[in-house]
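As the next step, I selected for study a record pairing a protein sequence with its backbone structure tokens, which the following lines show:
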Amino acid sequence: MDNTKEEIVNYLSKKKFITLATSTLNGKPLTHTVAYINKGPTLYFSTSSQSRKVKNICKNPNVAYSIYDETEYLEDIKFIQMEGMATLVSDKEESGEVLKMLYQKFPSMPDMGSDPDNVIIKISPKICYFSNYVRRFGKRDKVEF
């Protein structure tokens, strides 16, 4: 893995939430705040199978998300803009592993109760725009996965 891809994976590993963009059933954009875990550049999250994001993903699996460092100074900005493909995880072993990782990252999550209606969503990356203004102001790197 090249240095920029490694930097992206490290950045994803340190964060907890993304702003996920899906397309509504009538084609309008919609964003969702999502708690996630990552395995390399691939993201996973759990949500209700009845949620709007799942309905949107089932109709159009193309998604995008962003993550950024909150800062008061423009020159300190660091962010990811990722385009990817979202799918429902059907493999029980993979789902179980993801749930364990979610519980480790978010200790209060098991206390919320396990809803049998929840599903695991996997976001496989396609194209990432990564920017670190501390390193290079006003520029971003395009990385394909």
In short: Residues 4 and 105 are 24 Å apart (CA to CA). The two ends are 10 Å apart (CA to CA). Strands lie at 17-23, 29-35, 37-39, 42-48, 62-68, 78-88, 118-132, 141-144.
